[in-house]
């Protein structure tokens, strides 16, 4: 993992998901770069917590950090990857976060990202869109959530250039 600087990311390797090590490091570094006082990060699409671990690891040591995971526990939008985990996704997500000692930094909002976005009021410092990978849903996530990122904040999207996810 490129040295001791990234040792907090080691648990990422044992969690199922499609983040590469470069993507994990990027999420970690972006969350480390957020303000020290009460940073707000939002992840749309938690799967089993791989991205959550990277983001929350970077938030550690900050004052009152919060990572909000918009997490459809039915694995909607995950396609074929949902089949083995369906029914156990919520438990696996929660256990992975507890195992690495990051659960206390994370607030989970279960349900569809579109409905959650309608209720969201706080400015976001870092937004990671990694939910439903179909074009209409990904576009909807962008349209719903991007305006909530504060000026100077970060908007990160996963799988925007990917042969499996056309569009």
Number of helices: 6
Strand content: 15-25%
> Runs with pLDDT <50, length 5+?
79-86
What's the number of extended β-strand segments? 5
The class by helix and strand makeup works out as alpha/beta
Kindly report how far apart the N and C termini lie.
31 Å
Tell me the overall shape: globular
Provide the spatial order of strands within the biggest beta sheet. 3-2-1-4-5
Average pLDDT, rounded to a whole number, is 87
Describe this entry's structure for a reader:
This protein is α/β, with parallel strands linked by helices and about 170 residues long. Helix content is about 35%, strand content about 20%. It has 6 helices and 5 strands. Strands 3-2-1-4-5 form a 5-stranded parallel β-sheet, sandwiched between helices. Helix 1 runs parallel beside helix 2 and helix 5 (about 115-120) runs parallel beside helix 6 (about 135-145).
Quick recap:
The protein contains 6 helices and 5 strands; from the N terminus they run αβαβααβαβαβ. With 167 residues, it is an alpha/beta fold. It starts with 20 loop residues before the first helix and ends in a 10-residue tail after the last strand.
């Amino acid at each position: 993992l490129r040295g001791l600087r990234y040792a907090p990311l080691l648990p990422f390797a044992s969690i199922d998901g499609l983040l590469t090590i470069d993507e994990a490091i990027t999420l970690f570094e972006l969350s480390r770069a957020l303000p020290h006082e009460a940073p707000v990060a939002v992840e749309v699409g938690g799967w089993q917590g791989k991205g959550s671990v990277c983001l929350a690891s970077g938030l550690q040591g900050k004052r009152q950090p919060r990572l909000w995971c918009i997490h459809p526990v039915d694995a909607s939008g995950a396609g074929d990857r949902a089949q083995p985990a369906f029914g156990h996704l919520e438990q696996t997500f929660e256990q992975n976060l507890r195992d690495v000692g990051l659960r206390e930094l994370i607030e989970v909002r279960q349900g569809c990202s579109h409905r959650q976005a309608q209720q969201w009021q706080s400015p976001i410092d870092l937004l990671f869109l990694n939910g439903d990978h179909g074009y209409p849903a990904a576009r909807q996530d962008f349209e719903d959530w991007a305006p909530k990122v504060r000026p100077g904040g970060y908007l990160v999207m996963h799988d925007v250039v990917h042969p499996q996810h056309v569009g």
